From TrEMBL:
Transmembrane segments: none annotated. This is Rhodanese-like domain-containing protein. It comes from Siccirubricoccus deserti. PROSITE patterns: RHODANESE_3. The lineage of its organism: Bacteria, Pseudomonadati, Pseudomonadota, Alphaproteobacteria, Acetobacterales. InterPro entries: Rhodanese-like_dom, Rhodanese-like_dom_sf, STR4-like. SMART domains: RHOD (SM00450). Coiled coil: none annotated. It comes from the Bacteria. Residues 18-124 form the Rhodanese domain.
Amino acid sequence: MPGVPDISPQETWEALRNDPDATLVDVRTDAEWNFVGLPDLSEAGKQPVLIPWQLYPSMQVNGAFTEHLRKAGLTPASKVYFICRSGARSLAAGQAAQAAGFPHAYNVADGFEGPVDTEGHRGQIAGWKASGLPWRQR
């Protein structure tokens, strides 16, 4: 298995806008979706698919994750871009998806908020928000 490639937020956005088979799966928790915000894909005519990789508050891995991908209508032909806060959970989710028969899994590099800056804040250096891509509060 070749592994899950890291794709920049900008390349992800272009794929979502131009490829009807491209889907963004946000694997963060309900709390993150509610309090941090979500990618806004309305300009691409899409919505992010919200499936947590870990369940809040225990942060136990979601044992039904790949089943939820199928229930969301994703197939082996789908190009699935996984995003989390900074790129770690989404990489694990992409690996699980590949192992479950979704060969076109991609990790959005630096996630939604990216790494912390010198002041300890996220969303400024890299990632979806820092790249100036559309997002909204829930």
